[in-house]
Amino acid sequence: MSELIELSAAQAVARLRAREIDASELFEAYRERAAADELNAFTWVASAAPEPVADTALCGVPVAVKDLFCTEGVPSQAGSRILEGYRPPYTATVVARLAAAGAPLLGKTNQDEFAMGSSNENSGFGPVLNPWDRSRVPGGSSGGSAAAVAAGLAPWAIGTDTGGSIRQPAALCGLVGVKPTYGACSRYGMIAFASSLDQAGPLTRDVTDAALLLSHMVGHDPMDSTSVAFPEPITLPSAEDLRGLRFGVPEELLGDQAGAGIEPGVRASFEATLALAEELGAEVDTCRLPHAPHALSAYYLIAPAEASANLARFDGVRYGSRVAGDRDLETMYSETRAAGFGPEVKRRIMLGTYALSSGYYDAFYGTALKVRTKIAEDFREAFRRFDFVVTPTSPWTAFPLGSKTDDPLAMYLNDFCTVPMPLAGIPAISLPSGLADGLPVGFQLAGPAFSENRLLEAAHALERAIGFDGSRARA
Ligand code: GLN
C-alpha cells in the first residue's frame, strides 16, 4: 500500500498500463488516506472506487478537485457556508475532461471562501493544516488541494489561480503548480471569483505530473467563450539543461527596496536556483517591469470589482442556504448574505461595489484597468530580451496559523510576485527550489502566452538539478 503512495501520478499511470498494479487498489489506497485526513484538506471524499473505464490515457489515477469546481450530485460549496449543501446538476468541463481521460474524482478539497485568500484560513469549513508543519498554513486559496497532494492523500489535484492561488500553495507545500495562459482551460462550471483572471491548473508532486494533468485539461470549450484551442499539444518534458535560455529577474520585484520584504531563507534559495540555472546554461540578468509595483493595487480593485458582480447571484433563492425571514424579500436576501458570507468576502464585496459605483468607476476601476494594460505591456517588452521572468513564488515560507489574519494588507502581500502574471493573462509555474528552515520554498518562472511547454521543459531541467525531496510531508 505505502509503495503505491510513493509512486508519482505519471509512474502510477505507467504501472497501471503495464498491469503491474490495479486501478481499484490504487483508488482505495488514496480513498482511505483521504477519508482519514487530519489536515482538513477534504470537504468530501468519494465513498467507493468508480467502475474502471478501459483504455484511458490516465488509467484510473484519481484526482482531488478544489471545492469550487461544480461536480454533479457532489457538494460544491466554494469554501462558503452560503453554498452549504449545494449539489450542482452538472460538472465543470475540466473535471469532466479529466474523468473522460481516466482520472476519476477522489474528493473535493477545502479552500478559502470563493478563492479569496492566501492561507486557507478564510474557509467557511475551517482552516487546512500544512503537512510539513501542522501549526502552519498550507497557503491558499487552493490550500486543500496542495495539502492533500503534499501529504500523499491524493496523487495529484486541480486548483484555480486568480492572483496566485495555485502557485503560492504549491510553493508553501513543496509542490509544482501551474497557472495556465488565460483561456487555456475552460472556466465552465468553476464557481467564479474574478472572471477575467480565474484559471484552472494542476498541483502535483513533480513537473512531469503537471504536464500530464494539464495536457488533459486544456482546450476550447463551446460552453466558455473565453476559452481557446491550445495551439499545440502539451507534451511531457525531458529537458536536462537550460542552454540558450535567458532568465530575467525583475528589478521592481527583487531590487533593494522591493526585495527587502523577502525572507532571507527564500532569497537564499532563489539565488542558489539562479546559480544552478547558470550552471545549466541559462543566462541570468536583471529585467524591468516598471509597473509591477502597482500590480497588487490594481489586482485588489479589479478582483473585488468582478467578485462583487459575480457574488450577487448568492441571494438565498437559487443556491445553497437561506435565512428564512418572515418579512420581505429584501430582508431575506440581506440576512442570507449576512449569515452566509465570511468577513473577507464581505470586505471584497464592499470594496468592489465601491470601486464600480457611479462617480468612482473611472477613478478606481478604470485606472486599475489602465495599470493592467501597462503591466501586460511591460511583460511583452521583457519577453523581447528574455525567455522567462523569474521570481520567488512567495516572499516567505509557510507562516503560523493566525499570524496574518488580523491584518488583511499583510495577507495581500503574499501575492506580491504572483498577481502580475494573471493581470497580463500569461502562464507561470512554481516548483520547489529547496527548504528554508525545514519549510519548502517556491521558484517561479513566467513566460509569454501559450509558452506552457517551454515553461515545463525549463522547470523539468531545474527540478532534476535541484533534486527536491517531498517525501517527509507524506510520512
Ligand atoms: N491571494 C489572492 C486573493 O486573495 C489570490 C487568490 C486567488 O488566486 N484565488 O485574492
Overview of the structural elements:
By secondary structure, this protein is α/β, with parallel strands linked by helices. It has a domain at 2-237 and 448-474: Alpha-Beta Complex (Amidase signature (AS) enzymes). It is built from 16 helices and eleven strands. An eleven-stranded mixed beta sheet has the order 1-3-2-4-6-5-10-11-9-7-8, with helices on both faces. Strand 10 (428-436) and strand 11 form a beta hairpin. The two termini are 13 Å apart. The model has no long low-confidence stretch (mean pLDDT 96). It binds glutamine. Residues 115-118, 141, 161-165, 193, 303, 414-415 line the site of glutamine.
What's the layout of helices and strands?
Layout: H1 2-6, H2 9-17, H3 23-35, E1 42-45, E2 63-66, H4 93-100, E3 105-109, H5 143-150, E4 157-161, H6 167-173, E5 176-179, E6 199-204, H7 207-215, E7 246-250, H8 251-254, H9 264-279, E8 283-287, H10 295-310, H11 329-340, H12 343-356, H13 362-385, E9 388-392, H14 408-412, H15 420-424, E10 428-436, E11 439-446, H16 452-466
Parallel strand pairs: 2-3, 2-4, 7-8, 7-9
Antiparallel strand pairs: 1-3, 4-6, 5-6, 5-10, 9-11, 10-11
Helix pairs in contact: 5-6, 7-16, 10-12, 10-13
The structure holds glutamine (GLN).
Glutamine binds near residues 165, 193, 303, 414 and 415.
